[in-house]
Amino acid sequence: MKLLFFSLFFFTLPLNAFYLLPETHPLKEPLAKLFLDPTTLESPEKLFEKGFKPIALKKQGTLFIGTHHTLPGYVVKFYLLPATAHEANSNYHTLLQRCRGAKKIRDLLKEGQSSLFAVPDKWLYELPYSSETYPLYILLATDMQILNLTDSASAWKHKVTKEHLQELLAIIKTGSASFGLTKNVPYTKSGRFAFIDTEYPDRELDLREFTPYFSQEMQRAWKELSL
Fold it and tell me: Do residues 41 and 129 both lie within one domain?
């Protein structure tokens, strides 16, 4: 009976508990100061006033991706204040999926002891004005020091070996990875390719979509591997 009770308790824990930023993390205090005022999330202009530097604004300007000088070595991703509880829950679920996808790939890379690919650590930080019905979270991710699109495209053409393809294929077959290798799995200053788009950890991908990113030699190898 005790074992059954423990199992039920374990599986009913909120899923985000596994992805919450640890209490001891050194950026916990800077994040608390940055997001103490809920009006910070009202508009991109408010964010700029607070010192945030944008990398991208997506989804009609509601999804902010950027950096802040008090969060060195990290990138933040979050939504501006949503209009409804339904939208808030949808945004939370999307950020949660990104954390889940990153962990899935990280576990695969550790299992294979990969030195060719990397994935950022991703955590959720709950804002003080969040609630069960209106969840508001910030996603904090390690900055992978990615190269620009031109250099990443060149790396996929000229630095990829058959070993790269084997590891990439193994990850794709688990439902992870992403289309658009140049943008979503860019090359980094560390000499590895980084899986930065982890929003969809459970999907089937058409392997043919990846072929154009490789050199002619690696295209032939990819075709052989993916048969």
Answer: yes
Work out the mean pLDDT of the chain and round it to a whole number: 89
The pLDDT assigned to 15 comes to 60
Report pLDDT for 17: 79
Cβ neighbors of 176 (< 8 A, separation 6 or more) are 101, 104, 105, 108, 195, 198, 201
Residue 99, burial from CB neighbour count under 10 angstroms (0-12, 13-18, 19+): buried
Domain count, the chain: 2
Q: What is the number of residues in the chain?
A: 227
Other beta carbons less than 10 A from residue 37's beta carbon: 13
Question: Is 188 inside any structural domain?
Answer: yes
Tell me, what amino acid is at 73?
A: G
pLDDT score at 112: 80
Range of the domain at 76: 18-142
142, 163, 179 - which closes a domain: 142
Q: Which of 55-69, 151-165, 182-196 has the lowest mean pLDDT?
A: 55-69
In this structure, is residue 29 part of a structural domain? yes
Q: Is the pLDDT of residue 8 over 50?
A: no
205: left (phi over 0), alpha (psi -120 to 50) or beta: beta
Angle 131-60-52 (CA atoms, 0-180°, nearest 5)?
70
